[in-house]
Amino acid sequence: MNKKYIYLIFVTMFLSLIYLQKNYLHDKLTSYVSEKAQQRFGTKSIAKDQENKIKSIARAMNVSEPIVIRKMNHNALITFGYYNAFAHFPLLFDFIPVGSKPFLFVSEGFFEDLSPKEQLFLIGHEMVHIKEKHTIYLNLLLNLFFLGLFLFWLFFKKIINKNAFIKKHSSVFSVIYILLFFISLTVPNLVSLAYKRHIERVADYKSIEKLKSYDGGIKLLERWKKEFRLPDYNPHYDLFSDHPSNAERKQCFLKLKNRSKEIDEKYKTT
Ligand SMILES: [Zn+2]
After folding, report:
1. Rounded to the nearest whole angstrom, what is the distance from the C-alpha of residue 199 to the centroid of ligand 1?
2. What is the distance between the alpha carbons of residues 186 and 242, in angstroms, rounded to a whole number?
3. Which residues have a beta carbon within 5 Å of ligand 1, which is an ion?
């Protein structure tokens, strides 16, 4: 039999097997990535009344999907700070979504030290990330982009090497080629940072619109400013930052607060 047909039979059998076992594979993969996420950020669950508090904010934000809530471990606290919470989508090899439940990790001081207003702001903000599945495809897209870029440069090099002038000065062009390759690698990283700043603005805006949690947001910004010694403005016009600057966020919170007050006043007078 033709070799081609043998390969085709094997590939068909392999794909059929995957299809038949898809539920089993899905369960295995989701439990694997969930385990990994907990090993990385924390395995301990939180008290029932605290969990209910978070779930009631989730309901207020129209988030109905199940969320696994865990306490941050020591390493996560070092990265995210003592007064924080963050949403996380477990991914296979850190870039492939396999449909596992989203996580919410809360810090040591979240319930103990943050005021109810700060908790409302932060959980509302994280719920927008969960509801809109922010960053779930980011690493996958980044990896595909890098692969595409690599293939493009490989192809490009083959084409330019055919040119007689380039062939003659091949050493100079090799240096230019390598330099341009590394410069092009920074583009997806800058785009990814711009996207991260964008989703932070979206999460701030949508959660405050819904919950009127501006006061909690302003207070929490002050807390983070002290804890992380954050400057008011990000360096290099935000270009290398994954969050909008403190000053920008505060200004946005104050604007939303004033707008909400204006609307209340209008209703009072009519
Ligand atoms: Zn966020």
Report:
1. 7
2. 15
3. 200, 203
Residues in the chain: 270
Ligand 1 centroid to residue 185 C-alpha, Å: 25
Distance CA 128, CA 133 (A): 8
Contact 41, 76 (CB under 8 A): yes
Report which residue type is found at 70. Answer: R
In CATH terms, the fold of domain 3-131 is Zincin-like (3.30.2010)
The CB-side HSE value for 3 (13 A sphere, CA atoms) comes to: 0
pTM of the model: 0.87
Contacts of the segment 25-29: beta carbons below 8 A, 24+ positions apart: 26/98, 26/99, 29/92, 29/98, 29/100
Spans of all domains in the chain: 3-131, 138-269
Secondary structure class of 64 (helix, strand, coil): coil
pLDDT digits (tens, 9 = 90+) for 250-260: 999 999 999 98
In the Cβ-directed half-sphere of 60, how many Cα atoms lie within 13 Å?
A: 20
